[in-house]
Structures
1.
Amino acid sequence: GVGYSARKSPLYDNCFLHAPDGQPLCTCDRKKAQWYLDKGIGELVNVEPFTVRLKFEPSGRPESTVDYYLTVKENLCVVCGKKESYIRKNIVPHEYRKHFPIQMKDHNSHDVLLLCTACHALSNYYDNHLKQQLAEEFGAPIGCEEG
């Protein structure tokens, strides 16, 4: 089978971005939060959890307080709960996603999940079976996933 390299660092830093009025907008990684500070367009309001308030009105705001992008995400396998040796799993394979409209491709973190190496391998086995079916029935592309 294909060898998988587990992540060396957590996928989810669970930093927060807030609107100028303090409304939580989303969770993000530390690098993105730091980018707003480095550009001078955000200010640090809390160190733990790392929270940055934007100095400009964002183009969009969450629909509700239970918005997916506000949810703190755990660094563990979403199938078995294992807390180490996990890999990013793209729910929509690259060979299909590249055909989506641009608004469905921009910053969609909800189509990426964490799986441990064992669950990832099993998932890929079933993915390949389904891709084969889709190729036979509908002429869908079959290719290696590029991220």
2.
Amino acid sequence: MDALSIRELRQEAGPQADMFLIHAQLESLHQKTTKTNKPYYELKFVDAEDSLVLRAWDNSDAFADCATAKARGFYAVEGAFYLNAERNSLDARDFSLKPLSPDAIDTLLAGSGELRKRQARDYADIVRMVGEIRDPRLRGLGQHFLDQYGERMQRTGAARRNHHARRGGLVEHVAQMMRTAVQICVAYPMLNRDLLVSGVLFHDIGKLWENAYAAKGFTMPYTEASELISHIPVGMEIVNRLWRDLLETPEASGWQTLEPSSDRVRLHLLHLIASHHGTLEFGSPVVPKTPEAHALHYIDNLDAKLQMMFEAYEKTTELGKNVYEKVWPLPGNLVQPLERFESDFEPEVVEPVYESEEEDLSVTADNVVSFDTGGEDGEPSDGLPIPEPDFGDEPLPDFESDEEDADEEEPF
């Protein structure tokens, strides 16, 4: 019998019990008693995308297996699974537990084939979009981060619950936000694309310590540092540390003459990280005060909310036709989205006609404000790596470049 993921089991199981096999990690195991003082075990299993709670009663074969099972262990769980209509959840009449082999554990940790492909594609998109950043300081910072922490990022969740709460979920969240940011910059060409894309990459990097899964498991440990400081200050410290690393490289010798100044670039990036929760009551030490900071906050919120909704449709209770039970923290009951209209109709694409070049607001090299790089032929001249602070009051302009677009240390 082929092993299913927990998500696949939800799709396959029906109201009548049938035999299925899953591979999962036993996250927790607790012995409890019924109202009549009979013992039973409550087990929570987790895999790359989902979780499942089962109960082993004292008159079942599973009860004996639970006596020797260990929390955090990896098991093959075979049993008669069915959908419990009363609780709208998976259940099993009886089941058995058998430890997984090391090879089976490695396969389980990698996730389903679909998940592996999706996360690999998302990470490749992140690498590509970082390579497309024109400002050499932000591009170098992003590439240095991926070199240092890319492996850890690929096993970090975007949250403990609610959205992208799975191993590698942060990669999915950041990649989708980056793709959205790039498209928003097409619609709003006055935004600083380099800064916004970099802000997306770094906004949640503190979660590499707050929400990182164990190297061999699906459990997300709690740490003293993340509880006392949280991911926003940790992320700002990591950016400062990476920035200091770059100042020691030969490339940084020419940063003094770049415009906007390196001090302002770093300051604006730190502001995006600090303000991305949007309000003080939601944990940001400062509210968004630049166009890119506002854009980042809404892109983050949009991706989180949509992901919560799409996942909720698969798991929550149907209250009536097309109406589903509320899922926290969404504000109300969910309604089935309207199906897209399918048609062979292909609209004619008509290019806009402008009476003058000044009316053309499309993103081109000709209508982006140019900034002097200080050297000949567009190359930065040599200088000190740390320019004098000159923060000013204006939004950070785009970095203008002649370059072609490019196709586990603890923080405390």
